[in-house]
Fold THO complex subunit 3.
Amino acid sequence: MAVPTAAMGPGSMAHWCSVSSDPTHYVLGMQELFWGHRKTSEFRAHSAKVHSVAWSCDGQRLASGSFDKTASVFLLEKDRLVKENNYCGHGDSVDQLCWQPSNPDLFVTASGDKTICIWDVRTTKCITTVNTKGENINICWSPDGQTMAVGNKDDVVTFIDAKTHSSKAEEQFKFEVNEISWNNDNDMFFLTDGNGCINILSYPELKHVQSIKAHPSYCICIKFDPTGKYFATGSADALVSLWDVDELVCVWCFSRLCWPVRTLSFSHDGKLLASASEDHFIDIAEVETGDKLWQVKCESPTFTVAWHPKRPLLAFACDDKDGKCDSSQEAGTVKLFGLPNDS
């Protein structure tokens, strides 16, 4: 389904598509685009803090998971998000969710209630609930769509068959597991840990391949760029590191944040990297040069960001109340940056 150009305002889609690939010209072109599309709108999603946001593979839907034990799904219509459904069934906080990488109708949620739930937006029902051994804090879906990996607070990662919903393997790690991800080729499995390391396992064998000392402090998050050229890590040292996938060497460090880096997201073309923390802004960097391209202002800490899979739209969620009793600031909102200024 074609994405309507009206969603980005007259002429803006053509402008975006014609931005030069030369890094310097690309930065200037994207800065010009964002100057006309720097509006951030927020949309009520939950009754408590939002922990996770993610786009479906076709970009038509945005899902969010919350401390209120629910997930919500929005439809992207022109320059706004329209709430489609709320998904109830967990008995504890929904800490992370992700979509099936090639099926825009399926997503999975991981909860502290020791379960994961697979949902189908066509029926608004839970397809299945899978019981796990611990309180789940992170989840990812393999690029080939065949396996889900879920990690819990006890540093156990369970690999679940996406068709049979049964456990294929289970690994107990002796280090603090912070985030997990397959590489784009589906033959390596990466884990960031509390020692500042990136741990790499072969897949599906799950044999240790390499551990890389990436940061002097906790290595918190990891994301692979859609082109397969780079991956990025974020750390408690407030640094974002960009790594060459093939060489496994660090090519850039971004140091514009002052607080631990909690979340990362690459744009669909792999040219932009968004990173966020307790700083009251989201840093958007041009990947090839490390230059700051834009800064999205926030009123409170940001703990989840996600670029749209086809367009320069950034979804994110903040700690809305920031510990304050401010009735003018709703809890549980999702935000969308990159909208036309006059929308």
